[in-house]
Every structure is written in C-alpha cells, then in structure tokens.
Automatic annotation (TrEMBL):
Domain of life according to the entry: Bacteria
InterPro entries referenced in this protein's UniProt entry, alphabetically: AMP-binding_CS, AMP-dep_synth/lig_dom, ANL_N_sf
GO terms under cellular component: membrane
GO terms, molecular function: ATP binding; long-chain fatty acid-CoA ligase activity
Protein name, entry field: Long-chain acyl-CoA synthetase
Species per Swiss-Prot/TrEMBL record: Pedobacter nyackensis
Keyword Nucleotide-binding on entry: yes
Coiled-coil annotated spans: none
Keyword Nucleotide-binding: yes
Matching CDD domains: VL_LC_FACS_like
Length: 637
C-alpha cells in the first residue's frame, strides 16, 4: 500500500491512513485528561476536523487565508490544523514564549484572521494586542477558564469557545461533508500549507512559506531513510508544534504512517510520562539527552564501591560491543555474553526509565555532543541525528538506522542536493546527493547550501530577503558551515554566529544585545549561550557613567583583573538588565553576567577593525569566567 502519491497533501495523509491502514475506531491520539490517559480515535479526530472546517466556511474563511495557533501540543492543535488545512487555509503557529510585541508583529504581518489559544496566560497576551491587529476577527480559547478573563472594550475580534466550534463534530449533514471534500480535492501539493516565523539578523521575524509538497516530500524521504518506522509505533510528543522539527518528525510522520501520538503533560513531567506511555520513538533535543546521560552517570557511580565498578564495566562492555558491530564484525560468544550480563545488570534499568520500549530517538535542533551519542549507543539505544532549518521543511540530512557516524548529522536525504561552497571564493567544493553517498568520502569545509524539494517557497511578503537567501541557481544558503565526513554531513560552525541554545531555539545576538544596550549604564554587551541551556553575557559598562555613579579613579580601570567583582556595581547594572529583559522572550533573557573592566580591543585580537566581536576568540580567552557564570547560575537555582 502506497502512503503517498503525486497529489498527497497534509489533510489527505490522515485520510489515507484510515482508508488503508487503520480502522476509524483505532487510536490515533493519546492525552492525559485529569488523572487518566485518554485515547482518541481517528474517527473522532476527523469528525472534529470537519467541524472546524464547517465552522470556518460558515464564517467566510477562504483558501489561502492565514489562521493562527498559539497553543501547547494537544489534540486540539490537530483538530484545528486538520480542519483549516483541508479547506486550504494556512497554518501560522506562534511560539508560546514570544513577547507581546513579536506576537503582534506575526499576527499583523501574516494577516491572520483567527487564532486558537491554549491557556489563560496566552489568552491575556493576545487580548492585550488584539485591538491593534487589524485583520484578526476570531479569538478561540481552547480552555474553559477563559470566561473568567475580562475582554478589553477596544477588542473588536469575536471570542468563541473552541468547544462551540466543535459542537457539530459527527453531526454535519451529507451536504456539508460533500462541500468540505470538494474543497479538499482542490488543494494542490504546491499550495502553501504553513507560515513559520523565524527571526532574522535584524530582529524582524520572517514568515517561511512551506508548501504541502515541502512537508509531504520531507516525510516521504525521511521514512525511506529510516524504514523501521511502522504503524505500530507510539510517539511521545513534547517539543513545540510551533517548531518545524516536531511538526514534521512527529506529527506529519504519524499522520502519514499511522503511528499513535501521545502528548506529554509538560517538560517537568516528561520522565513520568515516558514511564507511563512507554513510547517506541521520540523526537528530542540534545539537552534532554544530556540530562539523561548526566543523571545516569551520577546515579551509576554515586558512592563508589562495587556498584560503581559494575556500572563502569558495563559501559566499557557496551562500547566494545558497539564498536565491533559498527565495524561489521561478529562480537563473538564471550563479548556477547558480557553484553547480555551488562544489559541485565545495568542497561535494562536505565531503559526502564524511558518506558523500556524505545527503538530510537531522533535528535535535532542543535548539535548533540559526540560523547552523549556514544553513551546511548553503548546502552543499545539509537540516537538518530538530523539537520535542517525551518526554510528546508526541515530535514536535509538524517542518520541512517543501520549506519551510525557519531558527530555527524547523517546522509543526504533522497531527492535533494547539498553543496559545500567556499565562503570566500564562492567556488563549489562538493555537491552530494543520496545516490552519490560513499562511506569514506570527505571534503573541506564551507557554507552548506541546498536545493531541491525541501527548500521553502520563500519568505512571506519579503521578495528581497528571499532573493538574498535563494540564489539564481536555486541554491538556498543556510549560513551554516560544514563538510562531509565519512559520507555524512558534519556541522562545524555558523557563518553568522547565530546562537542555538541547548533546546534548539535560535537566538540572534544583535537584536537582543541592542535591547540591553538601551541602558545608559551599558556600552557594549556580548551574548553567550550556544549549545547551553540559557544565555549569559559579558557586559562592558559605560565608563563615564560608572565613574560618575561611584566616584571611581582612573586607577580602577588599570587594575589587572579583567572583570569587576564589586557587588554594588554588579547590582547597579543588574537593575537595568532585569528591567530590559521584560522586552525579550524568556529564552532571550540573560540569566547571569560578568562586567568586563575595559572594552574588547583590536590589539588583543578580540574585535575586527570594524569593531565586530570575534566570538570564538572571546569565548576561548574568557572560558574560565564564562564557565563560572554558568556554575553560579546553576547554584543559584
């Protein structure tokens, strides 16, 4: 049975599953209601989607209209998304942690007509800006407590409960269903499915236009590259569906293949939910894997003695076994017996905490430390890394299930080309495809560029930015630096010094730094946080204002210590930084900082002649103080 055809779109994937893989009454979605896990069938899901479609058709929503979602992962997200997509409307998912200013920009830039809201906090946020959102007609809260919130008088958008939208689920007339089906058949793979907003270096978000074909082809080739995923899988979903990675790697994959999706209650309850749901597959970010790794190491070696010796012995056995298998050799009876004992004594207990059924985890959004990937490999838990961006739907490369090269992001997916281009000369160093794969191929590093079915349609209403990102030969320039190593793509740097935190969230330093430099006490600020859980910063104070405030002599700035440790000065600057943080999303706010006595200098090689900071040099030079900031912040927690 074919999962895809040349007319496949996001709404047809799920209906294909019901027609050819599962019965309508089979379970599709699982979520916790009160204290019990509740299973939701394909029939109920499609009935709710049809109710959403009928409601919005009655309200005059047309094909191509933009429809918003600002809601946590939940069945309601699926009902709404499937409902709007099958009438040709476009999904505009907003990251829940964005500031009011950023949310207002996205609502207005997209011309959004309606928005689904997930909780009281988000509802209050949208009500504060709704009066200034000219096209917003409907605010749809998906929680009962919304009635306790007073709607400002200047809000013209109509507030309608999502429960009211769903009242006709399973009750639509044959004529209504026929109309929805007719519209669904008019949707073409080339039509836009979603706008996903990603920040630019100027701080202005750009709406990435992704077509049905972008998503469908991405899912199709990823399933080809990881053929072990079948209709018996249970995915546990916890990464935000507002991010393209979770949308494709979990939601769309499950819609196409007929897998179950269980929604985690929260990040804090994830470990508990894993033990309850016993997932077979999960999409995750490196930070989660690092935490599991750290906890396992700490627990296994705590107290020393025989327990620690057995734990370390088991890890060594797992490593030996893994390396023999990866070399294509037979482990032999002795090593196999040791592995079985290590599994019984150590590995099985760690796996139990994940539910005990994991086939593999898909890691994306940020680089996974090589040692963490190897640790899971030693346990017998596969971690498949992938690479891509919002603009590439997102996957460009992903690890093959049977061929692991730690420290790389896998093989080029079928149907696209990935080029490595010299940053300075623009000469092409190498172009690789899925078919050209050679296990021992390597090349020099350069900018990673890509063309093919995964590349976006462009940035919404931004032709100049689109032309800058996609050249005349249709190559999309990722801004990432990488190379091919043992046939797989390896990411080595970022062309524009974008920070990607440990949760895979992109942070562009310049707009964040500009917010903090509104303070008259701050002359310069250098943001830190790549691959880390949160941001910190090195702050250069305004010397004149600092001297005036504390009556400091010139000799104060001539001291050999690079950083100022006087508490009153730290508190003085901290007051402004805390106030200005309110203008930023939570993930953009600095959690700790150090005050550098004197500015970065050209002479010390810290900045270029045009006064741009050399990030790698600064971070290497001040590695000690930077690590202290993270240790202090952890201790403060």
């Amino acid at each position: 049975m074919e999962l895809f055809n040349e007319r496949s779109t996001i709404p047809t994937l799920l209906r294909n599953v019901v027609a050819n893989i599962h019965k309508p009454e089979d379970t599709f979605l699982i979520h916790k209601k009160n204290t019990q896990w509740e299973e939701i069938s394909y029939k109920h899901t499609l009935d709710c989607a049809d109710a959403v479609s009928a409601f919005f058709l009655n309200k005059g929503i047309n094909k191509g209209d933009r429809m918003g979602l600002m809601i946590e992962n939940s069945p309601e997200y699926v009902y709404y998304d499937q409902g709007i997509q099958q009438i040709g409307a476009i999904n505009v998912s907003i990251y829940p942690t964005l500031s009011e200013h950023e949310v207002a920009y996205i609502v207005n830039d997209s011309g959004m007509r309606a928005i689904l809201i997930g909780n009281t906090f988000l509802y209050k946020k949208i009500l504060k800006i709704a009066a200034n959102c000219r096209n917003l007609e409907y605010i749809i809260p998906a929680f009962p407590e919304y009635t306790k919130v007073t709607i400002p008088e200047d809000v013209k958008a109509q507030v309608i409960s999502f429960d009211d939208v769903l009242t006709q689920a399973g009750k639509l007339s044959p004529e209504q269903l026929a109309e929805i089906s007719k519209i669904r058949d008019t949707i073409r793979p080339a039509d836009t499915s979603s706008l996903i907003y990603t920040s630019g270096t100027t701080g202005t978000p750009k709406g990435v236009m992704l077509s049905h074909s972008n998503f469908v082809e991405n899912v199709k080739v990823c399933l080809q590259q990881i053929p072990v995923i079948d209709e018996t899988e249970t995915f546990l979903s916890f990464l935000p569906l507002s991010h393209v990675f979770e949308r494709t790697a979990t939601y769309h994959v499950c819609c196409a293949q007929g897998c179950k999706i269980a929604y985690a209650q929260s990040l804090e309850l994830l470990a508990k939910n894993m033990a309850e749901i016993k997932p077979t597959v999960m999409s995750c970010v490196p930070r989660l894997l690092e935490k599991i790794h750290d906890k396992a190491i700490k627990s296994g070696t705590a107290g020393g003695g025989m327990k620690a010796k057995i734990f370390l012995w088991a890890l060594q056995v797992g490593q030996d076994y893994r390396r023999v298998k990866e070399a294509g050799k037979n482990p032999g009876m002795v090593l196999s017996a040791k592995k079985a004992l290590a599994e019984k004594l150590v590995f099985s207990k760690i796996k139990e905490k994940t539910g005990g059924r994991l086939k593999f985890m898909i890691s994306g959004g940020a680089a996974l430390p090589k040692n963490v990937g190897e640790f899971f490999g030693n346990l017998g838990i596969k971690i498949l890394e992938g690479f891509g961006l919002t603009e590439t739907s997102p996957v460009m490369a992903v690890t093959e299930f049977h061929r692991q090269v730690y420290g790389t992001v896998g093989r080029v997916i079928p149907g696209i080309e990935i080029g490595i281009q010299n940053v300075d000369t623009k000469e092409m160093i190498s172009i690789q495809t899925h078919e050209s794969f050679q296990e021992n191929f390597e090349c020099e590093e350069g900018e990673i560029i890509v063309r093919g079915h995964c590349v976006m349609q462009g940035y919404f209403n931004k032709p100049a930015e689109t032309a800058e990102a996609i050249d005349k030969d249709n190559w999309f320039h990722t801004g990432d630096i990488g190379r091919f190593y043992r046939g797989n793509l390896q990411i080595t740097d970022r062309l524009k010094n974008m920070i990607v935190n440990a949760y895979g969230k992109n942070v562009y330093p310049t707009p964040v730094e500009n917010i903090y430099m509104k303070s008259l006490k701050v002359d310069q600020i250098f943001l830190i946080g790549d691959k880390r859980e949160y941001l910190t910063a090195i702050v250069i104070p305004n010397k004149e204002n600092l001297q005036e405030a504390f009556k400091l002599p010139e000799s104060f700035f001539q001291k050999p210590e690079a950083f100022i440790d006087e508490k009153e000065i730290i508190d003085w600057i901290g007051q402004d930084l805390r106030k200005l943080s309110a203008e930023l999303a939570k993930f953009e706010r600095i959690k700790n900082f150090k005050i550098k006595r004197n500015p970065f200098s050209i002479e010390e090689g810290e900045i270029t002649p045009t006064l741009k900071p050399k990030r790698k040099i600064i971070e290497a030079k001040y590695a000690g103080p930077i690590n202290e900031m993270y240790a202090e912040a952890v201790e403060a927690d």
